[in-house]
Amino acid sequence: MRKKIIYEPTLSDSALLMVDVLGKAFVGSFFLHPYYHTYCKHTKRQSFKNALTRLENRGLVLGERRNGKVLYCLSEDGEKLANRIKLKFEMAKSKKWDGKWRVLIFDIPEKIRSKRDFLRNELKDFGFYQLQRSVWVYPYNLPQDFFDLWKDLDFGR
pLDDT tens-digit profile of 31-59? Predict the structure, then answer.
């Protein structure tokens, strides 16, 4: 039986995508957005505001205070993460399999274990199947955007 690739965004992912779609927006604008009702329907508004604050603390969104309200927009790093999340959604869509497997093999040293663990988690989110610790397969063509995401990661080369 074929495993269906499902990507479920976190609350922070949803907030980041909404900032991306809205451009610049005050917090009140988010509660009218369809992403909020799709991905955050059982979430309290305060939890959503906390997610935006965490994104701001991580430098992914920029908050500009105006008349007691905060106007949010994406930073450069936030744009990169938003593109990665959109790509995960795109790769999770149902596709017709061409009968070929794409194999990804890597060897990342123990001293940069955190990057290796990050890579493994991202591969899972993208829908890759793990055969062994550093051997992963994917049943569909990989878009160029997937490879572009990894250019920013420095694995010690």
Answer: 666 656 565 665 677 887 888 889 999 99
Neighbours of 155 (CB within 10 A): 13
Q: In what order do the strands lie in the sheet with 69-74?
A: 25-26, 69-74, 61-66
- Domain housing 33: 11-84
For 107-139, how does the pLDDT look when each residue is reduced to its tens digit (9 = 90+)? 888 888 888 888 888 888 778 889 988 899 988
Both 63 and 127 in one domain: the answer is no
Would strands 69-74 and 129-132 be described as parallel, antiparallel, or unpaired? unpaired
Helix (H) or strand (E) holding 64: strand 61-66
> Hey, what are 2's tokens?
């074929």
157 within a domain of the structure (yes/no): no
Global confidence as pTM: 0.64
